[in-house]
Structures are given as structure tokens and as C-alpha cells.
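for ur thesis appendix - Endo-1,6-alpha-mannosidase. copy paste whatever u need, i formatted it the way the template wanted (i think)
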Amino acid sequence: MLFRLALLSLVSCAVAQDLGVPLTWRKFNNSRPLSERITIAQNAINQMTPQLNSATGEFNAIGYWQSGNVWSVLANQDHLAGTTTNKALVLNNLNLVFSRWAHYDQFGTMTMLCGGPKPHCTRTEHTATPRCWRMPSTFGLMSPASERINCFIFILGSQLASVITAAEASAGKQPNKAFAIKSTCGGATMAGGVFWRPTTDDQSVNSITTGLSAFLAEYTKNATYTSAAILSANWIKAHNINANNLVLDTVNAADCTTSPATWLFTYNSGKYIEGLNVLAAVTGDSQWTTLMINILNSAVKTTVWQGSDGIITEGVSTTSNNDGVGFKAVFIRGIHEAWTRNPSNTALTTLIHSYGDVQYNALLDLAANGSTYSSNWHGPPQAFTSWGQLAALDVMTSNINTN
Ligand SMILES: *[C@@H]1O[C@H](CO)[C@@H](O)[C@H](O)[C@H]1NC(C)=O
Ligand SMILES: *[C@@H]1O[C@H](CO)[C@@H](O)[C@H](O)[C@H]1NC(C)=O
Ligand SMILES: *[C@@H]1O[C@H](CO)[C@@H](O)[C@H](O)[C@H]1NC(C)=O
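the 3d part is after this line
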């Protein structure tokens, strides 16, 4: 079944995509000048930073991985605005967080590649879930260079511990797992998949842990990492894309069972889109760009997480935090990467610009209370919440560029 779906998605890749902007989208343009967009985004950040817990480097009322996303957007804000407004805060707090945990891991175990938690884990899984900061966005801010190298080593070690190599797939055994793994699922090799958790009994290979490794190849220019990134990109392509070109969640490496077809989350497509853009740049192989465009075009138009107005409806939670609230921020960051990496594809950049403006205008028109934003992007405005603010930050900062 999975194999058939994978074949279908390959077939659809060959069809030229209509990247047109749906005319039903609400307000897909914007005339705010650059200086105003920079101010709007920085003002949103300035509402978040008072929530910093200076003892932990995390923010009140949101968790570890969500706090990591705040640091990412602060770094991106300086990068896109050409400022150093947030630099010291980012540096000091990343150094604080990194000093608090061995391998930067809150849970004291070797972590996997940076990902995010799943909204559907049981409580037990949840507390044991390893998470880590999404470091690539902040590499450029880290000094001295040895810190960046430490990050590379960390990610390498993490990946080596949790990735399934070609030899391991063939042998049906991964050295850090206490169970036999399937060599193939649905006829495709399991090589390149990255386990969700490093514990010896965790059987889940999922898209969010598998989708990232191209950054390491780009920063190091080391062919070992390029090969690993290609293997992982192929794993998602073969196993975890549905017939509508949306990235699925999990495959069980012990028995090939999959997460339900309805487990569709923006961040799985977003992180893969981001990784494929980097991989296309590293390899010069246009198949990754083609695949990325198909997924992006589907993801911004699917009815799974937006209506005909185009406004994202995933992660609406006005009274309490949950992991899903932060997913759309990861998605927005991923499609921003596509915007920066494909300047000559004007149909694509127009689509991303328009989708970004839909979210931007919704937040500003429907969900804003001063410079604070509800996690319900259709509104109404409400009093400040850390998680609502987190979800909005990437929209504000990305629109400095994409508008
Ligand atoms: C979008 O463009 C139209 C036509 O140029 C214009 O009338 C409208 O004011 C613009 N909307 C925004 C939000 O800038
Ligand atoms: C590339 O990375 C591998 C794995 O860490 C390492 O053994 C090798 O020395 C690296 N190559 C270069 C040229 O740095
Ligand atoms: C706007 O935020 C303030 C401060 O958090 C709050 O007191 C007020 O009720 C909010 N307004 C609305 C319309 O929710």
C-alpha cells in the first residue's frame, strides 16, 4: 500500500505544477514598507522576551523545543533585518542552555536530530521524548567557531546513533536498538530513516527527525554528510509522502506499521521542504527542487490545515499550550527557506509571498491585540499567551523577506 502511494507521488511529480495563487485566499498582498515590517516583527519579539526565565533560557508557559524556536526566530530576525538587536540575548541564552545539559539534551540522554514533539504521544512517551534546539539558524551567531564545531559533532553523534545505515538495513539490525528492524517496508529500503527516540526500545522512524540532515552537509561540505542527507531524503520520499504530496508522520521499523493517514501536521512537510532546499543546493540535483515544489504547492493549498481563505487553522489553542501550536511556525520557516533559495522561480516566490501575506494580514487584522497575537489566526484577539506569540513570530519575521 505504501509502495503504491509512493509510486503515485512519483508519477504526480512528473506533472507540471500549477503554482497559481487561489483567488479565494483572504488578502494575499500587502503594501507595508520594509521598515514597518521590521518594526512589526521586532515588536512581536519584544512582547515575548519578558517571558524569559533567565535561570533556564526557556520561556514561561512554553516547553523546551518551543523555546528553541523562539531563539531561532530571534536569530533570523537579525539576519533578515540586518541588525544585531537580538544577538547578545540569543548568544547568552544558547550558551546558558548548552551549559545546563550534557549534549544540550534536557533529558540527559543522547538526543537525535533536532525535531519537535508529537501532539499524539502518550504522557510517558512525552516526558521521555528527547528534544533539542534547532541549531542551524543560530550557527552564524555562535562564536567562537569552536562552538559551531561542537554543534556539528553533536549532530553527527546524534545522527550516527539514530540513523539506519544501508548496511544496517540489509542486516536487519541497528546497533542501538534491542529489536530486529525490517530491511524494507513496502518494498523500499529503510536505510536513511532516523529514529524518533534513542532508547533501545523505541521503534518509530519519523519524518521530523529524518528531514534535517542537509544543513550539516552544507555547513561542513563533507561528502559523508551529503550522502547521509540524500539517503534520508530518499527515505521520506519512498516511505512517508501521501498521494496528495503531504509528508506523513511515522513508520515503525520493527513491523512497518504506519501512523494513521490522518496524522498530517504542517511541520512534517515544512521541515522536509526546508531540508530539500538545502539538499538541492548542496547536490545541484534538481530532482530535490521538483519534489520540494510539489510538496510546498500541496501544503499551502491542502484543506487539511486551511480553509478556502488560506488562513492556517492548525494549532488553535487559546486557553492552554500544546505542541501543535508551534508546528505552523516550523512550517512557515520551511517555506521561507524555499523563498530564499529559488529567487528565479517567480511563480513559486509569488505563491510563498501570497501565502505569507494571508497569514500576516490575518494576524494583524483578526488576531492582534497591540503587538501580541492569538494562536487562532482567525481571531478574535485575546490577552497575551506565550504559545500564541511563539506561533506568530515566524510569520512576522519571514514577511520581512517574502512580502
Ligand atoms: C492589494 O492589491 C490591491 C490591488 O493593487 C489593492 O487595492 C489592495 O489595497 C492591496 N491590499 C493590501 C492589503 O495591500
Ligand atoms: C567527514 O566526516 C567524517 C565523519 O565525521 C570524518 O571521518 C571525515 O574525516 C570528514 N572528512 C573531512 C574531509 O573532514
Ligand atoms: C489585550 O491584552 C491585554 C493585556 O494582556 C488584556 O488585558 C486585554 O483584555 C486584551 N484585549 C482583548 C480584546 O482581549
